[in-house]
Design brief:
Radius of gyration: 23 Å
CATH superfamily of the largest domain: Hypothetical protein af1432
Distance between the termini: 41 Å
Strand content: under 5%
Largest sheet: 2 strands, antiparallel
Number of strands: 2
Amino acid sequence: MPNLNPQSRNQPEDTDARLGRNDSEFRIDLDRIRFSRYFSRLSAVTQVIPQAGSGTVVHNRLTHSLKVTAVARAIAIDLIHGPEASTIAELGGCDPVVVQAAAAAHDLGHPPFGHLGEQVLDRMARERLGLPDGFEGNAQTFRILTTLDTCDAAERGLNLTAAVRAAVLKYPWARDEWLGVFPPADQLPRGVGMDRSDGAQKFSAYSVNAAEMREVKSAYPEIALHQQTIECSVMDVADDIAYSVHDLDDFYRAGVLQHTIVSAELNGWLTNRLALSKLPRETLVKQLRAPGYSLELAWRHVQAKDSWIADAEAFAESVLRVQVDLVDGLLAVPYDGGLAAERAVAAFTRHWIDRLKSSISVDSRPHVRSGHVRLAKDTWHDVVVLKFVHSRFVLDRPDLAIYQRGQARVIETLVEGFHAWLNDPDDAFRAPRRLTDSVESSTQAYLESPGRDVGPAELERLGRARAIIDYVASFTDAQATSAAALISGTSDSLWEDGRSL
């Protein structure tokens, strides 16, 4: 496959005539992403916890993406002016605008209801609709940019440069590339997952878009097969930083993070670290509510997956640092909405963002589980501990689980309802126009994809299934709820709820 130039597009454009002689190719890409309806939609898609129950202080996917963009741009500028500038250049460069575009686009593929929606759509896609590569938010992002979204410069997609398309490939492989491949976990790229009986857990392109993924990667011959580009790794690090810090702001403001239970867990591990290290895993699992037990399990999991960087003393120092700054600092004073509380949140966020983004390392030959741009060892462990607090004391809460059970049912209702509708020969013609158009284009894409050797009926089935998943994934949280009520016959607001279709 010939190498592309990073500024190559799917189709040539008369840039000077269209947008003025001083606009860069990458700036055009950034503007197209920002003006996309998929980007605007993110303002009404859940990040972790819904705004409906916690007010506008809680991040949504759009505010998260904007903050990732700011952090990523700062890192990129530091890199190209820092001591590793020559190494960065040898690996394909790090254009700050490409980094901004990738950061703005990185969550476009997220469906309604955050990661819960992603999990349910993947299950429904594979088990109910028979799509072998299911659904994955990163793969959906690449599909939106290259296939689903539109602009006036191309028949399909946003006609972005190869550099920007490559910069969103956090997991640059298709799901089936890792099917049945079983090397040790610490020798697998991050995101592939422990169980590969049905392929990679995370991936950046569906089979129908895999050829284009490989093509844009060819613009960077210096980058190994399963490695991110420099600009992608900057975006990925910035995403980790924003996720681990800004989401904690949300949970503090919403009153979800409680000083007593978080302190008990972290202090329990710090105090009994040696004794906990000697307990069998089965004991830890059976007594997860005992202080320190969950954190010990998390440490063992990290140690098994990332032995290349995991360090017991660095982990303990990070636990202590989080205990002092987050628990005994921010959480020690309950949030009351006042100016003093807001200043405390701002100070905590600024301190941790500055700490993390100023501790970037560059590797010319990184470990397979890392990128060329990564956090230094101490801050890498900090992010692990911050994410543990997020997971243990927010995502595992029973009240959130109840709410998510209802959200899962909404996604299931939509997939089942649209699947039944499109398979009804007497009524399929009345399905929403955007959905029926998508069926046609998806079927054509499967027909044209390399190595596809199936009959017309199977092509039609695959195209219909992928179109349903694309359609449901494009809803906001509110649109999904309204459409599910309509298609299940429980809504009495036809014209109001019907606008979501």
